[in-house]
Target: Fatty acyl-CoA reductase
Amino acid sequence: MSMIAAFYSGKSILITGATGFMGKVLMEKLFRTSPDLKVIYILVRPKAGQTTQQRVFQILNSQLFQKVKEVCPNVHEKIRAIYADLNHNDFAISKEDMQELLSCTNIIFHCAATVRFDDHLRHAVQLNVTATQQLLLMASQMPKLEAFIHISTAFSNCNLKHIDEVIYPCPVEPKKIIDSMEWLDDAIIDEITPKLIGDRPNTYTYTKALGEMVVQQESGNLNIAIIRPSIVGATWQEPFPGWVDNLNGPSGLIIAAGKGFLRSIRATPMAVADLIPVDTVVNLTLAVGWYTAVHRPKSTLIYHCTSGNLNPCNWGKMGFQVLATFEKVPFERAFRRPNADFTTNLITSQYWNAVSHRAPAIIYDFYLRLTGRKPRMTKVMNRLLRTVSMLEYFVNRSWEWSTYNTEMLMSELSPEDQRVFNFDVRQLNWLEYIENYVLGVKKYLLKEDMAGIPEAKQHLKRLRNIHYLFNTALFLIAWRLLIARSQMARNVWFFIVSFCYKFLSYFRAPSTLKV
Model:
């Protein structure tokens, strides 16, 4: 029997970020492998006109939880949704709910965070730093707490090439940053943000590093561990391959390419795409929770959940596999620009890339105006290019993460636990995973009909031909303008034409002699 699954039986577990991508998969795995757990507390706030209970009902009735209902029919009774808002002090939790949490919680999984790369520093600090500090204060008042597991990111120290399983200090103390956010106005914060984040690319990675410092400084006597996953993608195996429900990471790029928004990205083909399946992260998280509570390490251990050092896959290989999957299963038609291959293109200049993407959008918006409809493609394309620009930092670099603690934990597991809570990425077949990822985006995220594949293939072929014609016409126009303005271009053109004529004449002459 699985020791890890048995450990969580009868436990009261608090999960922050339970309505997010990883939080949902974490809940599903807990209920499926430990159906006898006592209760899972989730912090939820009303959203989009839904009450907390309605949000929970929507999650449990999704396809993700189908298998759970077979092994745990009373799953609705085992989830306790507590109103909370991480933007407020004490999370705005009622006195009664707070008392229940403090007196009953055994395990905390802190998954909540803002993952927006372009988030304002004040908001990023509140969710990724201040909220972590407040949760640690709550945890210190929980007499039954056995382990506190903090989910960070492998990119919290992306300003370094080699990253060890240690906490790296930031130049400014987290407490000073938290205090300054309370009285500085937005204009001053915008001005000092580049200086504070330094050589990190965005506020997300910076505030996640600050969050780790807070965990280190305010852990007290708590049993704490930190998990650093890299780019979290669709499920690998559990509960079924390819499940995904958000646009973060590769998912947004896959949709943009599949729908025809995105033709190329400025990436280094040989750079390692350090993608990690979400179920792999969840399996490691649950194993870490068990190990931290049972073995009680003397210091805070950090676990890297990455793939690059054990089973690397580069962006070029990933791009070609995505393209190959598009050939098999094209996405449904949308009001998009022509679709074609999704490639990592290092040569394409930023100017040409922008023109190549925006020109069809402008033309299509002009068509929409002529037909009396609201133009929208240019706005969508500008937003997409902005997103791709923020990702360029990560698709043009490779990192090395040490994984000693992760490998140590794997060796501590029984064969049964290694099977049930598998986080060994060396077993991952990338070609199979990426294909399932693309199919999952189409099926679970876009909810497209898989029966319409033949028609979509024909549509894809037509769109490709249109795209090639457009690019050819654009090239000829640019070349004609260049010849008209440059004597050197005319000389080059004359040389090419003369060479081609002589080359053809050379082959025609022998054939004439034979006759």
Summary: The longest strand covers residues 39-44. Confidence is low (pLDDT under 50) at residues 334-352. Residues 119 and 202 are 8 Å apart (CA to CA). The radius of gyration is 27 Å.
